[in-house]
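Input:
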Amino acid sequence: MLRTHTCGELRLPDATKTVTLAGWVQTVRDKGGVLWIDLRDRYGITQIILEDGISSPDLFATARTLGREFVLQTVGEVVERKSKNPNILTGEIEVRPTQLTVLNPAKLPPFLIEDETDGGDDLRLRYRYLDLRRNPVRRNLELRHRMAQQTRVYMDGQDFIEVETPVLIKSTPEGARDFVVPSRMNPGEFYALPQSPQTFKQLLMVSGFDRYYQIVKCFRDEDLRADRQPEFTQIDCEMTFVEQEDILNMFEGLIRHLFKAVKGIDMAEVPRMTYADAMRLYGSDKPDTRFGMEFRELKGLFDTIDMTSGKGFPVFDSAPMVVGINVPGCADYTRKQLDELTEWLKRPQIGAKGLIYARVNQNGDVKSSVDKFYSEDDLNAWAAHFGAKPGDLMLILSGEVDKVRKQLGELRLEMGSRLGLRDPNVFKTLWVLDFPLLEYGEEEARWFAMHHPFTSPKPEDIALLDTNPGQVRANAYDLVINGTEVGGGSIRIFNRDLQARMFSLLGFSDEEAKAQFGFLMDAFEFGAPPHGGIAFGFDRLCSLFGGSDSIRDFIAFPKNNSGRDVMIDSPSPISRKQLAELSIDTTVETK
Amino acid sequence: MLRTHTCGELRLPDATKTVTLAGWVQTVRDKGGVLWIDLRDRYGITQIILEDGISSPDLFATARTLGREFVLQTVGEVVERKSKNPNILTGEIEVRPTQLTVLNPAKLPPFLIEDETDGGDDLRLRYRYLDLRRNPVRRNLELRHRMAQQTRVYMDGQDFIEVETPVLIKSTPEGARDFVVPSRMNPGEFYALPQSPQTFKQLLMVSGFDRYYQIVKCFRDEDLRADRQPEFTQIDCEMTFVEQEDILNMFEGLIRHLFKAVKGIDMAEVPRMTYADAMRLYGSDKPDTRFGMEFRELKGLFDTIDMTSGKGFPVFDSAPMVVGINVPGCADYTRKQLDELTEWLKRPQIGAKGLIYARVNQNGDVKSSVDKFYSEDDLNAWAAHFGAKPGDLMLILSGEVDKVRKQLGELRLEMGSRLGLRDPNVFKTLWVLDFPLLEYGEEEARWFAMHHPFTSPKPEDIALLDTNPGQVRANAYDLVINGTEVGGGSIRIFNRDLQARMFSLLGFSDEEAKAQFGFLMDAFEFGAPPHGGIAFGFDRLCSLFGGSDSIRDFIAFPKNNSGRDVMIDSPSPISRKQLAELSIDTTVETK
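Output:
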C-alpha cells in the first residue's frame, strides 16, 4: 500500500508513530513560518503541519507547489495538536512530515470540491467524477450501499434466494416502451432490455424456488421527467404459497428493518388504506400522510347530505362533485394570496376552473367567496363538516369526480408544503390496497391493466370481469412513503385460463398472447403454484431515506433529461461496419 | 400462508401436530389399502400416508386423481413412521391428511423431474422452468447464491463500497464486439452495453471512492463457444493507493474466504508464477497445477545443453524447439494407443506434425521411436533430464516455439485427464504474473493490448516501449484455478501522457483517443490517484466451485450457442412502429 493509514483514522494514542498517508489536497494555508495542508480521502481529513526551524526548506518548497486536488503522499510523525479541532475525528493530532511526494498534480477543478459548490447541474454532470468527490454526493452513495447491504441481510435471513434473471430478453408491446438490442447472430431480430424481471420471477416460482429476490437494473424508454432515468434499479421479490397478507407482513418487515438498520428509526406498523379511500380522502393513490387535510365532500358520491345544491350557485349546482380541504391557521390569507393560489390552480398542469374559499374568523364567523349564495347557517354547517376552527381556511373545488380530486390533491400537497408539514426527515408509511384491476383508455377504447397483465383479480370480483370490468378489484398493493410510491406488487394469476381471459380483455388476440407470453401460459399447465410478489424502486427508496427529491443524486453516473450521459458523451453514432454487421441501418443522417 | 410448514422441516418432536403443507407431487405409490404421496418443495420431501379404515374414501379418490407435479395442499396430523427412512431429514415422520386440495393440476412434464433426467439439452432449455425443479440444477443456483453472499461478506468487511455503474454506455472499437441499443431520443445514435465497467470503476477511483466492488452483468457480442454466454456476470473490483502486491493479497483473501465459507476447504496460500515460466513449463498462461508433467526442453531457448541436434534426425535438427513431458506409468502404451494419440495431436484443433515417444522399460532400458538416430547414452540422458523412471513414457514434440508449446500443453492436459489427475473436487490455485503488455496482431500489423489499454507497464520496462514493445511486461495478473482463468486485473495507468502514449501505440489517432476516452484522460488531469483492480468471472467461478465444466448449468436462464433463449423465443422481430420510432430499419427481410 502507498499508505499505512487512511486520512480518517489517526487519533491521539497514535502520537509519535511514523505513518504514511496518501490523499487529495483539500486546502493549503501558508502563514509563512507555518504551513498547514489538509489531506483528504474517503475516510476523513488529516492535517499536515510544516514549521520553520523544524521542517526542512525543501518540504516548504514542495508544499508551496501544491494546488487543490493534487494527489499527495506524505511520510511523517503523528504529533498532538496545540490547537485541537473538536469537529473532526482526527482533530487532536496532526502529522509532521519528513517527506512530501506529489503522486499526481491536478488542474484547477471547474467547480469547488466543497459541501456547497459553485458548479451548476450541467457542469457537475459533465465532471461527475469530481462531483462524486464532494461529501454530500459521496454520502448519498454510501447510504445506497448500506441500503443494498441491509436489504440483503433481511432477505437472506428470510430464506430468499438471489437469482440473476437475463438482461437480453424479448420485446413485448404491453406497458412502456422497450429498449431493444439488434442481434448480430440472428439478423433482423432484436432482444429487449427488461422493464422488470416479472415473467422470469414468476417462472422461478413455477420452478419451486419458493422465495426469490434480486437487486436488479431495469430499463424503460420513456420521455424523461426530472425524476426518471432510462435505467433504474429495483428490489424485485416473489414468494410462493402466499396470500396478500403474507406479502404485506414480509415486506413491511423489510421496510422497518431498513429504517432501523440504516436510519436508526423504530418505524411503527404500516397503516393500510384502500385505493377507494385514498382517492376519496386524498385524491391520490399515493397520499402523503405526514399531514392531515383530508378531503371533505360537500356534495358527491359518498356523503349522504348534499350541502351545496339548490342554493342558486350554478358552479356547484352543476358539478358532480364539490370537495374541499380545511387548511389550519390560514384564515388570514390575503385576497392577493388567494388570487395567486387560484392562478396556480388554473395552470394547465393542474387545470382547475376556479377556487372557492371560506374562512373562519377568530369570532367564529364564516366568510366565503360565495356568501351571496349560501346563508350563514349553510356556511356554519360547512365549517362543522370540515372540522374548521377559528383561524382556519376552507378551500373548495368542484367539477368531474376524478379531475377535481386530482386537482384538490395537488392543492393539498401545495398547502402542506407551504405550512412546512412535509419535513423530509419525518417518515410516514402506508399500504394502499384493493387497486382496480383495469383502467379504461378512452383514446384506445380498450381496457388496460392498472398494474400489469399478470395481476390476479380478487376471487369475489371475478364474476364482474364479464359484466363490469372497471369494478373488479385486484389483489394488488402499493407501499407509499411520504406521498411517494416506493413499491408495488400483487398476487399473480397462476391459472392458464384466467391468464388467457386477461389477455383477451386487454385486446390480445389468441395468437398475440401466445407469441408474447406463450411460455408463461405453458408453464402454468405444468404445476404452477399460487404466488405473488412486489418490487421496490431502489433509487427512489434511497433518495427518500436520504431526504432528497432527486433520484439522480443517488445514482453514481446518471443521465440527463435527454437520456444522455454528458460525461462520456453517450449515446453516439456507431460505425457503418457495426451497423452492417448488425443488419440494420439508421433512417436519419448523422455526423 | 397456504402452509404452516415447508416439506423439509417436520421431525419426530412435531408428531401429533396438525400441519398444513403445500408442494409438488413427486410420486404417488398406491398399494390399494395404503397410498403414499411424496410431497416436494425446495426444502425437502414429506411423505403423506392414506390408509384404509383410517383415511376417508374421499381422500383416496382425490389422491388417485393426482399426477406427477400436481400442486397439492394438505392438512393433516404428523405421525411417527412405522418404517423410517434414514436417508431424508423428514424420514421419521409422515402426515396423515384430513384434507387434500389440488391447487393446480399439471400436464405430464416432457422429461423426468429427477436427479437423472431423460430430457436432452434442447428440451430442458425450452422448458427451463421445469429443469430448474431438478435438485442438481437448483443446488447449482443455491451455490451461486451463497457465492454471491460470501463475496459480499468479504468485500463489505474490507470496506469496499458497492456502486452500480451504468448499463447504457458508449460503444468503443477496442476489444470484443459491443451489443448496441438505438436511442429513440437521440436519432441515429446508440448506447452500448458494457463489456466491463472498466472506465467507470477507474473514474470512481479518481473520485476518491478508494475501494469499489460490484457483482455486475457484462455483455460481449461474440460468436459463442460452449462455455460462453452473451451476458455474463463479473465480480468487479478496484482499489486506490495500491501496488500489485496489495491486490494479490486482498483477492487471494477473497478466494480463500469463498473456499472456506462455501466449500469448507482451508485453501493454502496461492502460489505465484511468471507468465514466462507458465509458458515454459506448461505451454499455457493458465496452467492446470493439479498435476505435474512439467515441460522439459531437449533443445531450446532456455536449456544450456542441446540434447537433440547433430544426430542426423532432421525433424529435431531443424526445429527451433524440442520439448516433451514425462507421463508416469504409461510405458505400456501400445503402438495402437500411440498412433491414436498421434492422430489426436494432428487434428486441426491441435495441429502437431507428429509425436516422438521414448519409454523407460522396467529394466531401465529406454526405447524410442527415434532409436536409429540416438544412442543408448543419448536416450538415458533424456530420461535423466525428464526424471523418467522405469514404467514412464516420454512424449516429445518439436517445432516453432509458441506453436509447439501450445500443442504440448494440450497433450499434457489430455494425459492428465486420461490418468485421472484432473479431479473436479481437488482445487489448485495459482497467480500468473508479469504478463506481456502488448501482443502483435500479424493480420492487422499492429500492437494490441494483451489485457486492455488501461494496464500499466512495469516502470522498469517503460524505456522498452519505444525500442521493443513486445518485451514490455505489464503490472498484470491472472488468478488461475485448475487450469481455468477465473480472474484477471492490473495496476492501471493514471497519468494522462502515458495513457495517450498507449493509445498511440495501439494505433489510435489523437482524435480517436479523445473521442473514445477523452473523459478518462481528462479525469487523469484532475488529481488521479495510483489504482488497480481485478475482475472475476462469476459464472465460471461458480461452475468451478460446483465441480462442473459448464457455466450454463449455473445460470438460471441461459442462452444457447446461437445466442437464443429458446424458452421465451428471443431474439425476435419487432414491429415496424418500433423500428420507425428508433429511426432504424433492418437490412434483411424478416417474417
